[in-house]
Write a structure and sequence with these properties.
- This protein is an all-beta fold.
- It has one helix at residues 15-18; strands at 30-38, 50-61, 66-77, 82-98, 101-116, 152-165, 169-176, 181-182, 188-189, 193-200, 202-204, 212-223, 226-237, 240-248, 253-264, 267-276, 286-294.
- It has a 14-stranded antiparallel beta barrel with strand order 1-2-3-4-5-6-7-10-12-13-14-15-16-17. A two-stranded antiparallel ribbon has the order 8-9.
- Strand 4 and strand 5 (101-116) form a beta hairpin.
- The radius of gyration is 21 Å and the shape is globular.
Length: 319
């Protein structure tokens, strides 16, 4: 038994989760904080659904010819019934192919700790037609399910990725969880996650009026027999932006995602809401917040102050 695979609707604001080759791409130092509350009505309180917290740090180091990054995530299901905590470290080697084109190659590893609160779980065979899951005194009915031998699972895994980018276009491929793992009952599970995404950035207007911008994006994710594609765009004017995406799981239309945000100084803030279109539309959608701080206000590892005149990466890669 595993908790859900962590996914963010604001994937552009969680760069190290999206692809470890993005470490250091906006020069930095950069700090990102992400929070997602998915389907909150599945349980009581703010942690009733699937709640995810993420904290990441990355920066470009010229002497290392690339970027480094670290990321911590905590994924919690239905008030901590199943918890997965991960700590990842990564390095991205950067190739300045030309003044108009760059490549980053990323490698990384992660330590994962999973915990299951078995005695907080409820199973089908505990349902009494008259009283439900509980006896009259509030004690759960007995179950025939056999608990695993260990409620804690510790594992290590490997990740890799590649990113191609110019000052207007961007594309990348990432493969995470490359090492097969076992579930709580000793069954082998291949959790390899393949993510392919790309996008572009366009300015509109002239001179000082060139403040309108558009950033279309697409993300495809494949894991085991699961496929998901998200297509949409950010639309901005000066420091404010909004956006809309459609997410489809190939077999059904999953959700419409709307978002707003701003960038001012070193801070980018974003909020998005998933409007469920699938049969899960009664779960109250999903809320997501992101805070990204780029402390040097740099926008490209290919064009830092020490290497002026090379290349600026697309604006949205600085999220």
């Amino acid at each position: 038994m595993f908790s859900q695979q962590v996914e963010f609707s604001q994937f552009y604001a969680a760069p190290l989760h999206l692809n470890n080759a993005l470490a250091g791409i906006s020069y930095g130092p950069r700090l990102a904080i992400n929070y997602r509350n998915q389907w909150p009505e599945l349980g009581d309180g703010p942690g009733g659904g699937f709640t995810t917290y993420a904290l990441s740090y990355d920066q470009h180091i010229e002497k290392l010819h690339g970027g480094i990054g670290v990321m911590m995530t905590s994924d919690r299901v239905s008030n901590n019934k199943v918890v997965q905590n991960s700590l990842s470290a990564m390095y991205s080697f950067q190739i300045r192919a030309s003044k108009n084109f760059g490549i980053k190659l990323g490698v990384g590893g992660s330590y994962n700790h999973r915990y299951i609160n078995w005695y907080d779980l409820l199973f089908y065979d505990q349902i009494n037609p008259l009283s439900g899951f509980y006896q009259s005194i509030g004690v759960p009915n007995q179950t025939s399910e056999i608990p695993p031998g260990n409620f804690n699972k510790h594992s290590f895994n490997a990740n890799t990725g590649i990113v191609f980018f110019s000052n207007r276009y961007y594309g990348g491929i990432a493969a995470n969880n490359l090492v097969p793992e076992k579930d709580y009952f000793g069954n082998s599970m291949n959790r390899t996650r393949l993510a392919v995404n790309g996008g572009a950035f366009y300015n509109f207007g002239r001179g000082y009026e060139k403040k309108f911008w558009l950033s279309p994006q697409v993300l495809y994710v494949h894991q085991n027999n699961f496929n998901q594609i998200s297509v949409g765009s950010l639309i901005g004017y000066d420091f404010f932006y909004t956006g809309i995406w459609m997410r489809h799981t190939i077999t059904n239309f999953d959700a419409v995602i709307s978002g707003v945000g701003f960038k001012k100084g070193i801070l980018r803030f974003g909020y998005s809401f998933d409007i469920n279109i699938s049969p899960l539309k009664g779960t109250a959608g999903s809320h997501e917040f992101s805070f990204v701080f780029n402390f040097t206000k740099e926008q490209s590892s290919l064009n830092p102050k020490s290497v002026q005149g090379i290349l600026s990466c697309p604006y949205y890669l600085d999220f």
